[in-house]
UniProtKB/TrEMBL annotation:
Organismal lineage: Bacteria, Bacillati, Bacillota, Clostridia, Eubacteriales
Organism: Pelotomaculum schinkii
Domain of life: Bacteria
Name under which the protein is recorded: EF2563 family selenium-dependent molybdenum hydroxylase system protein
NCBIfam families according to UniProt: matur_yqeB
């Protein structure tokens, strides 16, 4: 097996959705090697800014950074040499044991700790609620919109999950598109498209999904995925200056918090 360079810190990010991709962007731009893991069929809605899309497409480029699907740890290390972010279908993150990274970031946004432990790597970081710095991770990054967004927390946890999305221009739950029934999802509009309140934007089986507000479709699940009732299948952004093909302000803020924690760790261990 290829060996990881001892001169570069390798970071394994569990999850490759839009927030995880913002973290990967910050770390990659700062010169760190990043490996991402995903499940076999990611339910990612902001597909134009998520490296998880490489699981379906093989390759994806976001803001000039390429990610590629890797079939093995060996292939992942080869992609790193080509300056490509490897995405492994590896739900259990076996790559952590195989590659022995300096840093593990749990960016799955499960709102609870699924299986991450503070012993997974010399530095373990959790995004959002569900983790406690000093107990199951070394640092937690705040993901709740507001004054504390992106803050690195070295003792304690993030703001508890409220069950409601943060407000954007005063809209919260209206922004989200959810599956009304169990079934196969079929979009009726594209990411980046403007929609009006009341438009049919998707179907789950034969049941229509209506836009509850006017705005731009910023995220939409991939066609043909089976989803249980209540699953988030897309979202709408009411802002006039909304962008669908660049990493969001929130993802970059969270990525900045991770970068701070990584630099803090590396500098204290020199």
């Amino acid at each position: 097996m290829k060996k990881i360079s001892k001169n570069k810190a390798v970071v394994v990010i569990r999850g490759a959705g839009d927030l995880a991709s913002g973290v990967a962007y910050r770390l990659y731009k700062s010169g760190l090697d990043v490996i991402m893991t995903e499940i076999e069929r990611p339910l990612v809605v902001r597909r134009t800014v998520s490296f998880a899309e490489a699981v379906y497409e093989g390759n994806v480029t976001i803001e000039g950074i390429e990610a590629g699907l890797a079939g093995s740890v060996e292939e992942a290390l080869s992609l790193l040499e080509k300056k490509v972010i490897p995405v492994l279908v590896d739900p259990a993150a076996a790559v952590v044991k195989d590659a022995r990274p300096a840093v593990v970031v749990d960016a799955r946004m499960a709102k609870r700790n699924l299986d991450t432990t503070i012993g997974d790597a010399p530095l373990v970081i959790g995004l959002g609620p569900g983790f406690t710095a000093g107990v199951d991770v070394h640092a937690v990054i705040e993901t709740c919109r507001g004054h504390r967004l992106g803050r690195a927390i070295y003792s304690g946890g993030a703001i508890p999950d409220t069950g409601a999305p943060g407000a954007v221009d005063g809209y919260t739950l209206e922004r989200l598109l959810r599956a009304p029934v169990d079934g196969v999802m079929a979009p009726r509009c594209s990411i980046g498209e403007q929609v009006e309140k009341g438009d049919v934007v998707a179907y789950v089986e034969t049941t229509p999904v209506y836009a509850e507000m006017t705005g731009m479709v910023r995220g939409m699940l991939k066609e043909g995925l089976w989803v249980p009732k209540g699953t988030k299948i897309g979202d709408i952004d009411p802002r006039q200056d909304a962008e669908y093909d660049t990493i969001s302000d929130k993802a970059l803020a969270v990525g900045g918090g991770v970068l701070e924690a990584v630099c803090h760790f590396l500098n204290s261990n020199q």
